[in-house]
Amino acid sequence: MTHQSRELLQLLHHAERQLNDIILGKNSVIRLALICILARGHLLLEDVPGVGKTTLAHALATVLGLKFARVQFTSDLLPADLLGVSVYERNAEAFRFHPGPIFTQVLLADEINRATPKTQSALLEAMAEQQVTIDGETNALPNPFFVIATQNPQAQIGTFELPESQLDRFLLRLELGYPDAKAERALLQGTSRKDVLAQLNAIISPAQLQAVQQDISSIKLAEPLLDYIQALIGATREDQRFSCGLSPRAALGLVQACKASAWLDSRSMVIPEDVQSVFPSLAGHRLILRQSGRSDPLLAEQLMRGVAIP
To answer: Do residues 139 and 272 both lie within one domain?
Structure first.
């Protein structure tokens, strides 16, 4: 690592500690959330209300120095409410585009599965190509651009299932879960999360974040590790329990996430443990069971255990 890379790594570790002070007892989830952002991926947080999904999204944007916007997804939210709209201005005798909240660096799509499929689909182009097309005109989104979406369990009333095309654009899906007894006691005795969040400062700048992302691209991945990744991807496609296996987009995302994991551990090369730490969160929401039409994160771990490391 260069001197600049070591400095950036120290800043990211400091950011990770700050996040651990906000979301107590969830160190592994926070690490994976950071890996997702560093790998240029979008993040899906799925869990019951009240466990800190929105707080984590806001804290991530703050410590990374990124402009943040939150949109509460509801059944009456329209695509124009998210993307923006062209309005005719009589004085100029022309239409003028008024950007929507999506024109930010971190968009929190809160309770994304409470919006209709039509509104959910408005995110597809933005998440894949970092742009939106309205009235035939293409508008570039800020760089960097991330979507962090929160989602309630599908069994809850008033939710719509995310289509496979939407799920595939989220690099990782994470579940926070309830805190353990020790973390919950500290939460109950400590300062309000709202107050702690208000005191949080940016640890790095957007330019430094982009420098980290460039640095991550230089992490090496040996041929045996590529064999391992391809074996995992192939296993998902051959397993008859799933309606379809992992896409090439998912495979590329897995490589980038593994490199980000290695970089955070100050290594210049990916090792099998990087793959194993990332794969369940990357594959769990993409592997849809034929019979039920639902995903099961535990199946991704089970499948991974059945693939030998070269």
So the answer is: no
> Residue 106: what pLDDT?
96
Residues of the chain with pLDDT under 50: none
Range of the domain at 121: 1-188
Residues 175 and 230 both lie in one domain: no
Query: What's the pLDDT at 154?
Result: 60
Task: Identify the pLDDT of residue 5.
Answer: 84
Measured between alpha carbons, how far is 278 from 46 in angstroms, rounded to an integer?
Answer: 16
Structural domain total, the chain? 2
CA 252 and chain centroid, separation = 15
Domain containing residue 310: CATH number: 1.10.8.80
pLDDT in tens, 9-46: 999 999 999 999 899 889 999 999 999 999 999 999 98
Assigned domain for 247 exists: yes
Contact 107, 148 (CB under 8 A): yes
